[in-house]
Write a structure and sequence with these properties.
Aspartate Aminotransferase, domain 2; seven-stranded mixed β-sheet; alpha/beta; 386 residues; four-stranded mixed β-sheet; single chain; 12 helices; globular; Aspartate Aminotransferase, domain 1
Length: 386
């Protein structure tokens, strides 16, 4: 189906922060497959893990215990707020799981009438019927019939509106600490703290969508950690598998108390191959000093990006985001900048609010940052004088 429009660029090989097309031309990848290839292309740790797993067993289904699941879940729980993890296949599936956990929590505790979720304008939680309703984008909802019931949207960053939206039917709040598709819009840390307080006050669950912002992207394992809070439920995917399809729902034992045998499942979820990938990513991301190194290189990228804004104010109006999840608010159409940068050998990703996203592998160094900035400098200069 032509759901992606026309695509002409094809890559045949990847190495670290670079992709190569069939002619051998090299592109610096600051899109990372939309924040997915978190530890770079063809990372030796990942390659070895997948080769070894493929040579033994690739799939058994969840009728049987999968040791890699246990290992990955234990590591995620040991390094986060969570007590339990459910593994699925994608970010949308993880967000669906989060919604189910929140609803089931309320029903389990005697409040089946509490099923509605509060979400934030500009959100993106996936492409399923429930998650497009949660996101609320008219573009994503058009033509798919009445939106799935149970979602109430509030303006971005407006705590009064959020509190006013809480009713006796509210099960929880679902928010992205940094909106990705919405235009790299970080939630204010005090706002996140106030959301946590409101959820506690009203007996509802704080659910965070860290599909894009998680797994080291901001220099901590999960972005909500910068606010010093702990959610009740979290959706993870993208960088968690480093290129293999995987999603995960992380939750406290209390929040997931209603998720007993038979309440949820997945044929492929947490299969041995995806778990080998997750554990390879965690080998890298949880290594001593790695997240500190992400923070260091992110600060360097931010400094250089701010310099570009100052140098080309008509092309780049501002830069925002956190860690290695940055966005340039563009003057010209962002698609024009993305296309021109690609022609010059740099891959970036467009986002809402006319933003150009920078989502490089977490393993980049200063040389890759300098190269990316040089290409954007050249690109902006050409656009400014066109």
């Amino acid at each position: 189906m032509p759901t992606y429009g026309e695509r002409t660029l094809t890559f045949v090989r990847g190495e670290g922060a670079y992709l190569f097309d069939a002619t051998g031309r090299r592109f610096l990848d600051f899109g990372a497959g939309i924040a997915v290839t978190s530890i770079g292309h063809s990372n030796p740790i990942m390659v070895k893990a997948l080769q070894e797993q493929a040579a033994t067993v690739m799939h058994t289904s969840n009728l049987y215990l999968i040791p890699g699941q246990v290992k990955a879940a234990e590591r995620l729980c040991a390094n986060s707020f969570a007590d339990v993890v459910f593994f699925g296949n994608s970010g949308a599936e993880a967000c669906e799981g989060v919604i189910k956990v929140a609803r089931k929590y309320q029903a389990h505790n005697g409040h089946p009438e509490r099923y509605r979720m509060i979400t934030v304008e500009g959100a993106f939680h996936g492409r399923t019927l429930a998650t497009i309703a949660a996101g609320g984008s008219a573009k994503h909802l058009e033509g798919f019939g009445p939106p799935t019931e149970g979602f109430d949207q509030v303006p971005f960053g407006n705590m009064n509106a959020l509190r006013n939206a809480i009713t006796g039917e509210t099960a929880g709040v679902l928010i992205e600490p940094i909106q990705g598709e919405g235009g790299i819009r970080p939630m204010d840390l005090d706002y996140l703290r106030d959301v946590r307080k409101a959820c506690d006050e009203f007996g509802i669950l704080m659910c965070v969508d860290e599909v894009q912002s998680g797994v080291g992207r901001t220099g901590k394992l999960f972005a909500h950690e910068w606010a010093g809070i702990t959610p009740d439920v979290l959706a993870s995917a993208k960088g968690l598998g480093g290129g293999m399809p995987v999603g995960a729902v992380l939750a406290t034992k209390e929040a997931a108390a209603g998720m007993v045998a038979g309440t949820h499942g997945s044929t492929y979820g947490g299969n041995p191959m995806s778990m080998a990938a997750v554990n390879a990513v965690l080998d890298v991301v949880l290594a001593d000093g790695f997240l500190d190194s992400v923070q260091d290189i992110a600060a360097y990228l931010r400094e250089k990006a701010e310099g570009l804004v100052a140098k080309h104010p008509t092309v780049f109006k501002s830069v925002r985001g956190a860690g290695l999840m940055l966005g340039f608010v563009a003057g010209p159409p962002n698609g024009e900048i993305v296309a021109a940068a690609t022609e010059n050998g740099l891959l970036t990703v467009p986002a809402g609010d006319n933003v150009v996203r920078m989502l490089p592998p977490l393993t980049i160094g200063r040389a890759e940052v300098d190269e990316a900035i040089a290409i954007l400098d050249k690109t902006a200069a050409a656009i400014a004088t066109a």
